[in-house]
Amino acid sequence: MLACSTFHIRATATSANTDISEPEPGPKVRKLKGSPQLNRWYRARALRSGHKLERSSHRTGTLEVNHQAQRTIESPSLESTSTASDGDHDVEVAPSGKTIYLVSDGTGWTAENSVNAALGQFDHCLVDRRCPVNTHLFSGIDDVERLMEIIKQAAKEGGLLVYTLADPSMAESAKQACKLWGVPATDVLGPITEAIAAHLGVSPSGLPRGAPGRNFPLSDEYFQRIEAVEFTIKQDDGALPQNLCKADIVLTGVSRTGKTPLSIYLAQKGYKVANVPIVNGVPLPKGLFEVDPEKVFGLTINPLVLQTIRKARAKSLGFSGEARSNYSEMDYVREELEFARSVFAQNPVWPVIEVTGKAIEETAAVILRLYHDRKNKCSMPQISKRY
Question: For residue 12, what are the CA distances in angstroms to 24, 63, 252?
Fold first, then answer.
């Protein structure tokens, strides 16, 4: 049986001779089991969202099962509920929005990030614009029975299934079950794997990462990433300027332009990163102007956005009103940004990246593209890697 944080399925099987039937329409609600604290939180969130809460009536469901040729294809006929604790009582919470089920026989990283990237194309209509989406990730799904349980639930909720299954037989089972029960589905991994297999002329292993028999020894690249993270942490916020020459990438910009999180993100990809803050009236370390200028990247941001970020930061740190006025007042913000622009103008080789509205990953992608273009003297933007 399958249990997860978003719903709980209880089923009773009928005889093996029962025919496969289509899922019957049912209330599109989910079963939530958790601690009293989690249930109280869930109820509070539902109330804030304007959901109607009703007293729970205990429901059970049945599943119709048909065993076919060593594979279990089950057709759902079950009712599931989403409940939250209200003192000594349970209440039902009807979900809102569309549902996307992510299924993987590994960590689920590929499916999750693919869906997140696709959802980025719908920022104009998600959540507050009457088109919310709920995603549910199921990782480590390595047998057909558990896979069928998830697809049945997707059928009941009218959800979309997105899966990355390395085992061709598992992927085919998912495809056939979704076709049978009318569940829209997308195989993220299959088409890419088939294309690479055809290109290389070699059949894929069909095993997910971490499966028995797939032991990956710790490589030099792994230890390089560890070393890069350690280096980057030590070089944060202008520390140890004498080591700037050892960095692969040097970031500089005024406070709250995202230098530290961007540095850590790049370090996890194996790049040694140092960041140097630009503060109005404070001399920059000489080492910043002595390193290879093609390693240095300037960061800038919209003054209104920067002021908002600084006000929130000052408040979280408990700064006094006087301290806040010096750090987050618009005149000071503009003056510091102008000082940074003058520094950048004196060093025209440094690329200056506008980070307003950009995610860390987006800014990192720009930096890495420029970094590799310069390093490899490429006329076409690319990041090359050998496997």
Answer: 16, 6, 62
pLDDT at 39 over 80: no
d(CA 366, CA 277): 20
Helix axes 321-328, 303-316, angle to 10 degrees: 150
Residue-wise pLDDT tens digits, 346-372: 999 999 999 998 989 999 999 999 998
Q: Tens of pLDDT along 203-260?
A: 888 887 766 666 666 778 889 999 999 999 999 999 999 999 999 999 999 999 999 9
How confident is the model at residue 328, as a pLDDT? 81
Find out whether 82 and 93 touch, Cβ atoms under 8 Å: yes
Residues 6+ apart with CB under 8 A from 314: 323, 324, 327, 328
Cβ neighbours for 147, distance < 8 A, ≥ 6 positions apart? 103, 141, 165, 170, 173, 174, 177
Where do we find the tokens 């993100």? 265
CA distance 215 to 205: 13
The torsion of the CA quartet 96, 20, 164, 199, rounded to 10 degrees, works out to -140
Identify the DSSP state of 8: B
Name which of 180, 207, 185 is nearest 68 in CA terms: 180
Rounded to 5°, the CA angle 108-111-114 comes to 140
pLDDT, averaged across the chain:
77
Q: Say which residue, 58 or 109, is predicted with more confidence.
A: 109
* Alpha-helix residue ranges (DSSP H) falling in the chain: 36-48, 109-119, 144-157, 168-181, 189-200, 220-234, 259-267, 287-290, 303-316, 321-328, 330-346, 360-376
Helix/strand/coil percent split, the chain, to 5: 45, 15, 40
Give the 3-state secondary structure of residue 102.
strand
Question: Alpha helices, DSSP H only, in 182-296?
Answer: 189-200, 220-234, 259-267, 287-290
